[in-house]
Structure formats: structure tokens, C-alpha cells
């Protein structure tokens, strides 16, 4: 076909030519749009996730001051419940005073350092990150009820403690049935601040 004949045919059927051109443009636009549609969808999902995060943060930030005050109060309570290992006399006196409050005779109290790791010291992981354990070995005499009261006070009173060992021996019935107990507890003290 020569070009004059093609031009004449195009002039004779302008609607068909326009339809073919529009269809071709739509196909090209659809192909291009399909690629950008996935990118736009991903951007829209990111924007929606960011908006939800901002909404969640704004909801939680309403009580932020109260939450921080509560955390500060918890920190103060923890700080007051830590043993000061250098005040050994004060620490030991505390157990004797607690024993007299609970009608228990405290026979001995020993403040011990925790056992040091043996073997591979490089891979040793301490039990606590911010605290060091202090071990107290306590021997008491008293009635069973008084020893139980002493243990309850010990867990709820001044220090943060964990009872590691408890051995109660039955006393002599003729002597008023006094029991004796060997108690090993672990209390916490603050680690010294690391120098920068």
C-alpha cells in the first residue's frame, strides 16, 4: 500500500483511527499505571502504619507524666530496699531488731559475699544486671509461729530478699517446744557506678 492510499483511508474513517489511537494510549497508560500502582499502594500502607503509630503514641502520651511519676516512685522504693554492704553493723542489727519484734531469738547473722564464678570467667553472666547479691546466713530460735512471722516480715519489710534455704529443727517438748531454724537469704545491693 502506498502512503496516499493510507492517508485517504484514515480520512475516510476518522472514528476508527481515533478509537485505535485512544485504545493504544489507554494500554500504554494502563501498563505504566500498573507499575506505579504497586508503589503507591506500598506508600499508602506505610503512611497508614505511621498514622496508627502516631495515634497510639498520642493515646499513651496522655498518661506519660503519671507513668513517669510511678516509675520514679518504684525506683525510690527499690533504692530504699537495697542493702548497703559497707554498713555491715547496721545490716546485722536490722536482723536482731526484726527478731525481737517477732519474738524470735536471733543466734547468729553472717553477711557473706556471693560465691565467685569458677572456671570460664569470660562467659560468666551475673544473675542481675544492676545489682549484686549479698548473702545472709541467719540462725534463729523460737516457736514455729514466731519463726513463720519472722520469715513473713523478712520478705515484706526493709530489704528485697529471696529465701534460698530454710531448715527448721523441732525443739524439745519439755523445754517449751522451741524450734530452731537455719535461714539463708539473698538480698540485693546496688552495683557501683561504672566510670566513663
Average pLDDT: 80
Question: Which structural class matches the secondary elements?
Answer: alpha+beta
How many beta strands in the DSSP annotation? 4
N-to-C CA distance = 89 Å
Helix percent band: 40-55%
- Rough outline: rod-shaped
Report the sheet with the most strands, covering strand number, pairing sense and barrel closure: 4 strands, antiparallel
Order of helices and strands: HHHHEEHEE
The stretches of 5 or more residues where confidence is low (pLDDT under 50) are: none
Rg over alpha carbons: 39 Å
Individual helix count: 5
Largest sheet: spatial strand order: 1-2-4-3
What share of the residues does DSSP label as strand, in percent? 15-25%
Description:
The structure is a single chain. The protein is α+β, with helices and mostly antiparallel strands and about 200 residues long. About 50% of the residues lie in helices and about 20% in strands. The protein is built from five helices and four strands; from the N terminus they run H-H-H-H-E-E-H-E-E. It has a four-stranded antiparallel sheet.
